[in-house]
Design brief:
alpha/beta, six-stranded parallel sheet, 10 helices, 46% helix, binds magnesium ion, binds 3-methylbut-3-enyl trihydrogen diphosphate
């Protein structure tokens, strides 16, 4: 039985989040410029999006560019922004063909104008699609997002729309980029390239996510790797603070 057949379709993670890492190292191995790795990484994005949609995963969030990534050499940042514009433009018809809706989280205003424009257009054009939601985290960092949520909650209190004592966990959740778009917490977080860190990604939302780390570099991560990650996820017991006995007796 191959990996795909072993997946239990009834126990799929509803939301998978991926830290796509290792493009630069992959290019270096090939004695190419870093941007070559980013281009190859787009092929992995296409394959994994297709794989998730075929399986019936409802939300896929991809960490594509972090707040901290702005500090990379200008040439790389410019190359990534150009790649982003071109990819969104070229792939929107395929998203629609596969009934996939595009969404984005992060400080989108800080993206170059043409980039944000292309993104907003793709979001608008795919807004009626219902098979899966693909969320791009762009100019994203979790601390920025939590800071924005805190500011917006404070503004609501200041305007008398909310009292300070009403602020609770749900208020914070609802004011995050994900919460404002109705995106649930990810059950599975994947990071490629052998790094075992979160790099400022979805800190609040991954409170109970299962982590899957693989040494595979992002440009080499394809559907079979996705299936391995999901199978690993399905082999785990998610306890949410309870005992194993409590979990089995509630089944
Ligand atoms: C991930 O690959 C893509 C982005 C962060 C934009 P990297 O560019 O971080 O590749 P490495 O980690 O240097 O290999
Ligand atoms: C995280 O990768 C950000 C993205 C995948 C977009 P980085 O390569 O920027 O993270 P660090 O620097 O290794 O923590
Ligand atoms: Mg990296």
């Amino acid at each position: 039985m191959d990996q795909l057949q072993k997946i239990d379709k009834k126990k799929l993670p509803r939301h998978i989040a991926i830290i796509m890492d290792g493009n630069g190292r992959w290019a270096k191995q090939k004695e190419e410029e870093r941007i070559f790795g980013h281009h190859e990484g787009v092929k992995s994005v296409k394959d994994v999006v297709e794989g998730c949609a075929e399986l019936g995963v409802q939300y896929l969030t991809l960490y594509a560019f972090s707040t901290e990534n702005w500090n990379r050499p200008k040439e790389e940042v410019d190359g990534l922004m150009e790649l982003l514009v071109r990819t969104i433009h070229a792939e929107t018809p395929t998203l629609s063909k596969n009934n996939i809706r595009l969404q984005a989280i992060g400080d989108l205003e800080s993206l170059p104008n043409n980039c944000n424009k292309e993104l907003q257009e793709a979001i608008r054009n795919t807004s009626g699609n219902t098979n899966m939601t693909l969320v791009l985290a762009l100019s994203y960092s979790s601390r920025w997002e939590i800071g924005q949520a805190a500011k917006n909650i404070a503004l609501q209190v200041q305007r008398g729309l909310l009292t300070a004592t009403e602020v609770n966990e749900k208020t914070v959740t609802d004011h995050l980029g994900t919460g404002m778009l109705g995106i649930p917490d990810p059950e599975l977080l994947i990071r490629t390239s052998g790094e075992r860190r979160v790099s400022n990604f979805l800190l609040w939302q991954i409170a109970y996510a299962e982590f899957y780390f693989t040494d595979t570099l992002w440009p080499e991560f394809r559907k079979p790797d996705l299936y391995s990650a999901i199978l690993d996820y399905q082999s785990r017991e998610r306890r949410f603070g309870l005992t194993s006995e409590q979990i089995s007796s509630s089944k």
